[in-house]
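Q: What does the assembled structure look like for these inputs?
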Amino acid sequence: MTAPPSDPPAPEEPTREDIRRVVASSSLARQLRAARARAKPSGAAPRPRRRAADGVLPELDKLLSRISALYDARGWQAFAFQRTVWAGLAAGRSGLLHAGTGSGKTLAVWLGALQRAAAHPADGLQVLWITPMRALAADTALTLQHTVRDLDIGWEVGLRTSDTGSAERARQSRRLPQALVTTPESLSIMLSHADARERLAGLAAVVVDEWHELIASKRGVQVQLALARLRGWNAGLPVWGLSATLGNPDHAMQVLCGDGGLRVAGEIERPVKLDSLIPPRIERFPWAGHLGVRLLDAVIAELEASRSTLLFTNTRSQAELWYQALLEARPDWAGLIALHHGSLAREVREWVEAGLKDGRLRAVVCTSSLDLGVDFLPVERVLQLGSPKGVARLMQRAGRSGHAPGRTPHATCVPGHGLELIDAAGARRAVAAGRIEPRTAPEAPVDVLAQHLVTLALAGGFDADALRAEVMGCWSYRALDDATWAWTLDFVTRGGAALQAYPDYRKVERGDDGLYRVERADIARRHRMQIGTITADSTVEVRWAKGGKAGGKAGGKTGGAAALAGGRLGQVEESFVGRLRPGDCFLFAGRVLELVAVRDMQALVRAGSASRGTVPRWAGGRMPLSTELADEMRHLVALAAGGEYPEPELQALRPLLELQARWSALPGQDERLVERIASREGHHLFIYPFAGRPVHAGLAALLAWRIARRAPATFSLSFNDYGLELLSARPVDWVAEVAAGLLSEDGLNADIEHCLNAAQLARRRFREIARVAGLTFQGYPGQGKSARQLQVSSELLFDVFTRHDPDNLLLQQARQEALCDELDVARIARTLAELRSATLRLTEPPAMTPFAFPLLVARLRERLSTEQLSERVARMVAQLERACDGVRP
Amino acid sequence: MTEILIAGERLVLLPERALWWPARATLMVADAHIGKGTAFRALGVPVPAGSSDDTLARLAGLLERHAPRRLVFLGDLIHARSAREPGLMQRFAALHSADCDWLLVRGNHDAHAGEPPELALTVVDEPWADGPFALCHHPAPQPGRYVLAGHVHPAVRIEAGGDRLRLPCFAFGEAVGLLPAFGQFTGHADQTPTPGLHLYACAGERVLAVPHSSARRRGRA
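A:
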């Protein structure tokens, strides 16, 4: 391992030829070829081989003896938690089983469900298995099928997701298998058919896999509503959730099972090894380099030491950059390393997953796209590039490694800059102490309810009072008030509240028998199509332009329009493509691509001729730092303030932290640090609440707005996970401002709405809401004329609603989501309260401190292009190094 | 009011997203998409009523202020066949007066929507030659004439001091000039000013020329 030099010389720009060579031989090219070759013969869903599936289970005692024979033959012992689950299911109870990965959760619930089905013989579908990811569904179905085969019972395990082909669907509509693995969306679509009750009322058990992934989302609410319907037909239906370790398992169980659930903890917590890649030398003035890949050499050394490694990044753009950097450093690894993120085409991702399973790949750079999924036995190691941002996330990612016998999960944090070592140490301590983030179900989302009403109106109609009672059985709608219920019913029947009725609108209609139904086939078809797209953001397919290879840079609008769409590369957000013009280059799927044309929700591209492309900045990239991790980090800094450096990461950071203490201060547990520094730029005010970037962004805007309200002033703002900066032409008298109510809770919501452009954020949130509530449609190539007429942007709808129907509850929901989820007002308020109650450490350091420096750089970055920035920052670092004592740490 | 000289003719860009050609006393609007909300509701999408009437009110104000001898719609006047709700068409027709001719240059939506008999419209196909101009819906260049067209719904993003705005705009190139969409319930397509393409943004009460530097910059890699 070589030590990165203190002032890294600018890496030699690779020539265009270098890039071409690397890209042409890169694994992505192979990935695509292999994926295409594979795509033809095998269908989307691996249909389990059918052997005399007569659907008849042996009697319960026979089944039990076969199970124990299977355990004996494998040399397994039934864990106590497995026996608890079996007993619970036998008694018809619902519950939640939570444990780390690889601890036998699936088998525990599956065998329990089989036992219950054997004790209550019936025809038709017996076990419904809901899983959050399509990719997971196929593998789960195989796992379940293997058990069925091993126990030699005549059950068929079916699969129904949006990938399921029409032949399989037709077969299922004639006769459902005994067990069905499906997604929340596909379950909702099943519920929208008139025969849903007949087909689903005889269930012996429902299993919800990876419930922790669903609970906090609208898809989780969709599951709650579907379960309420199933329970309405089958009052005693046992429902079991499987979840990873959560901070609030009781809530998770309450939401899924209602009262009286049985909470079972898997006692086999596998030990997890968490450590950090500590740079041999830590700069005292940390800043996130524009690649963040200064530890490249060290990372390569780690990759060499393991058979197979997953490198997790927090954003898709970071994944693309690391993949490029690794290939440039090790061209001989082309074909042995690969890239995996949610924007890549499904065939490519499947190819990568297959390569991980059979151990062909040495390393895969990935995003949260591989957080979940089947276990890859060969993966020995996980590297987390950049801050893990959350305790549960790091545990989940670590759990993707070390599944081979005799191995333990091992995750190593690779800090993007020195301060991120605190994140890593904090995450490890939180894991050890069992402080995991809680996840809470959403409160009464109107859009999901509106969708559910239409779904049930399709399925033969509903009675309003009966359905309201059923819906209120869901945790998320337990307090559904009359006004909201009446409005939602009005919305799907008349388009809005009574006074706002739209004369020419028809969707759900109330029949003479009092039941609400959808009569029109076109509405039914669009609604079913739409249920499947709840989570999809508005995306554009990236495809090769056929015949678009020639022509160089001049491929303007007219030239591109003639090109035909070729093979699929993946998807990017519409907003990203919207900012590009034909001829612009960008980095995607490990290649430099040039945009040829955009049409019909497709971006046509060809191999780029530029040496470097801009990297797409995807909307979903920003991850907030969790409260649990933030608390742990603040605690570590407080320990350092007392002279304690308990973890290796903190030992490594000691010189930096000591300099911080010498020039300014390290805040103790009940202290908050505020620094005032004057420079040629103006007067800087730095505050370090350690509450995560989104909170600091909100807080910075709020403080600037409140100060400027008292006396007009202009501020430049900067923020990161650790703190925020206000820069102004005149100094801020912090003590006087606080006395005048700077940190007050009075009028907080109103102030935040004013200064944070909450309206703009609400507009953005409205995108998803409009889609869920059936106002907008994803464009499908080849759709009919009527659907094309319906293409409208949610932003435009937001404006029209704001102007002509301002009381619409969907608008209120958008505002609420913007305040709670996007701005996290509750956490801003909590941070303000802490600032009020904590002891103030107000310092006036002689120069930029190690804590202040990253904020300064973040602000400069917004103003300057990258090249100028790196030069300027290098010069500043040199100045600061001269300013301190000159002794190298 | 912003005036420009195109093909030797003086044209006035109106902030109501319309074009005034004083020499011929002609008012031009593009992409009114009347009845779009109605069409949505007819297909089961609950969009509030009122946007078409807002559009008509804006048109009525323009007719009153400028008293044109001719009103030209550069295509996409009615959004769809299902948008031709009788009450709305009657309110539209009421804006017509005997001393002003209405001309519709057929756009892609008009072909599907059909011609509403309530409106006293002369309907023609593009390009419709008029003086130095070719009046069109689609912005394809026409030999020998300067094209005035719609279809694109041009808009421009302006960023300054951390503030961002997206405004409908006029876009005048070398051979083709684009009008903003007149309808209230219409989407937009972003344009970037270049040396050959001049943008004029409709900002409330005024029309502002957009300098090349203040529009959102998109660096080429």
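The mean pLDDT of chain A is 80.
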